[in-house]
């Protein structure tokens, strides 16, 4: 008797399945096809993105090689192209590298290029501050200490990510201007910061020796 009921139950299930397939078979098939196409499309998109990234990466490496080989014109040309058309990540890197490359041949023009990055609201504050630092570093030999201090001092606070470099170049700018008290203050901030890199501490010892020596007097 149990076998008879089992067979009837199985027959009912088959009939229900057949009825459901008859009613929804086309829809189910369509959904399956769409799923396959979606996966295939996703894989194709990933492949194309990988190819594009490899091409852009190769161009960026070519720019770096041109720079190392002393061919600044070619490096700037490639970096300018990437800064205009590369994907977002590479485009940002290319803009920073292009500004640095320009700064190698023309410090004022390079500083202006970094100013544009510092004022770009689409960039994260971390990178805008880095651009501000790089602009100030390029201007150390170009403008008075007061003009260096204005953009760099806010970066030299105890919590500043770029404080080590900001303090160093503020100290150098003050030293060049014979402002030994200001220079000593910035260099002391490096020495007393437990997180200052050891290499920077060694350089700062040399700077402090110059500060303690005071201005050099020349006799006519």
From TrEMBL:
TM stretches of this protein: 21-45
Boundaries of every Ancillary SecYEG translocon subunit/Cell division coordinator CpoB TPR domain copy: 20-141
Sorted UniProt keywords: Membrane, Transmembrane, Transmembrane helix
Organism domain of life: Bacteria
InterPro entries: SecYEG/CpoB_TPR
Name listed for the protein in its UniProt record: Ancillary SecYEG translocon subunit/Cell division coordinator CpoB TPR domain-containing protein
